[in-house]
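ESCALATION

Customer reports they have been waiting on this structure for their group meeting. Please prioritize. Original submission:
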Amino acid sequence: MNRIIEGMRVIEASAFIAAPFGGMTLAQMGADVIRIDPIGGGLDINRWPVTRDGASLYWAGLNKGKRSVTIDLRSPEGRELAQALATAPGPQAGILLTNLPTRGWLDPASLRARRSDLIMASVIGNRDGTAALDYTVNVAVGFPMVTGPVEHSGPVNHVMPVWDLVAGYALVSGILAAERKRSLTGEGEFMQLALSDTGFAALSHLGLMAEVQINGDERPRNGNHVYGTFGHDFRTSDGRHVMVTAFTQRHWTALVEATCTQREMQAIEQLYEVKLIREEARWTHREAIVAFMRPWFTSRTLAEVRAGLDAAGACWGPYQTFAQAVREDPRASTANPLFNEIDQPGIGRHLAAGAMLDFEGAPRIPVTPAPRLGQDTDAVLAEVLGLESGAIGRLHDAGVVAG
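Update from on-call: job pushed to the front of the queue and completed.
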């Protein structure tokens, strides 16, 4: 974590990944992110993975560094409190982040009536208002149809919610851009992001859309080959797998040197009258390259492969399970300044990541755990709305707030 945007206050009303991830990213750069949930928790309060006692590791992971307020949002008084928090005065306040339906207390018009320079970021599924989740977006944009073994005929889903994460970062950049606009002009902003647009935009940005329209091509399934260049997986003698890539001439030269296949690569070049320093040649003759390189990997352990590839300066990485990544890789340890060990309330002590960006002028501070649900209700009501203890107590007695 760092404090590059310290002083900014963001109210978050969210569930699942995109908005909570965006809010956590802002919190880990110093913003005061206050998450509002219904009493007892929102839709994602118990989402897996969970501890053996049922505490959500998912919820805790996505809410690090935030403050938690719980309000009965079904009651008029509760909705009034939530709107008051979202529109509270202050030059760096009045920022609302949500992926919930923008109605009720989240209605943009009623919020802007209370604060005309409100900045509000909203995530919806599809532009037409219909529902979409990461998993439905991913299947629509084509990636599952080119994922998996070449001989496989059906779709293969991946398990990483990439479009939710992309949406979270888009929300962060949008909020920061809108806050800059407001600081210059005094004007607020309502921005809306369709989750499905993150996937379809990627088709354009990565050239996949143009490949269909210009070339008329349907991308085939290529297994673990990297399309258009050389990259493939190899099995080691001790049953591990590694991925090697050669996107550049330097990486190709290093890989050939490490695997001692100079003579074999020259034979391919002479036979097919090509130069393997060119990516398209490596792609076209990928199967022959793999066949010649495979014996080097299968005759060596992972440790020996690591030593040889590292010595040559090749670009590669070991395939790892989640457990292997956490237990064996020094990048997932406190040796990496990204990580601290935290004592997460209700869960225990574990490794946790802070902000991914390093800012020279904003040194890192230790990662802040996620709050317990509702733990900051009283402090936020007093600090942001100026409520006295008696008024807060009456709200508790009436069941309007909890924590």
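Sent to customer with the following note: The chain has 16 helices and twelve strands.
Escalation resolved.
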